[in-house]
Amino acid sequence: MTPRRANLGAAATNMNIGATDRTQCIEFLLMDLFSMMSVTCAIEPLRAANRLLGYEAYGWRFSSEDGQVAHASNGFSVVADERFGASPAPDYLFVCAGMTLVAKDQTRLSVILNRRAREGCQLGALSMGPVFLARAGLLTNARCTLHWEGQPAFREEFPFIELSNEIYVIDNNRYTCAGGTAALDMLLHIIPEQHGAVLASPVDCQPVPG
């Protein structure tokens, strides 16, 4: 395993095709009782890509509806960097949800999500997050997926949205994935699109301490 990692690291120094020197901003909107596993699995490929590329290709921030501490379904708490909508639009925005699908202010949430879409932000959702995109009318023309436990209720609430059983779906500038490690698979698709396919395996094979 060690020689393989050494070879992958050497290959990473030549990954200039399709790369950009601009740091891309990824925002994670943490809804109440969000899935920590999904968020972690989305962040780790970004961290690994930065390490392999040798510069900060990706930066990320956490927001919550009220700008206060966000509580994950596993009991962990994350201090939000800001209230949702406070900063300029990021390059990517992922709505992260889990055990509850009740927003503090659904109207404000939907308004800002639609504003981000008009601003050209790439919109996505992790685990149960697609529910909030759908309620904002932002999945009308896109296939999507979400955690299997939420699929029956989603079909009932949104009968005209095409729901897939795939672990992640990228369609019409919407990025959705099921729960757990599906976020990792989706990010391992996004990163090579921007920095060359040769980066996919090195990111996936990074040693845990990184």
Topology:
Layout: H1 2-12, E1 24-30, H2 36-53, E2 58-64, E3 70-71, E4 77-78, E5 82-83, E6 92-97, H3 106-118, E7 122-127, H4 130-135, H5 151-157, E8 168-171, E9 174-177, H6 182-195, H7 200-204
Parallel strand pairs: 1-2, 1-6, 2-5, 6-7, 7-9
Antiparallel strand pairs: 3-4, 8-9
Helix pairs in contact: 2-6
Overall description:
The chain is an alpha/beta fold. The protein has one domain (22-201): Rossmann fold (3-Layer(aba) Sandwich). The protein contains 7 helices and 9 strands. The chain has helices at residues 2-12, 36-53, 106-118, 130-135, 151-157, 182-195, 200-204; strands spanning 24-30, 58-64, 70-71, 77-78, 82-83, 92-97, 122-127, 168-171, 174-177. It has a 7-stranded mixed beta sheet with strand order 5-2-1-6-7-9-8. It has a two-stranded antiparallel ribbon with strand order 3-4. The two termini are 15 Å apart. This is DJ-1/PfpI domain-containing protein. Residues 63-191 form the DJ-1/PfpI domain.
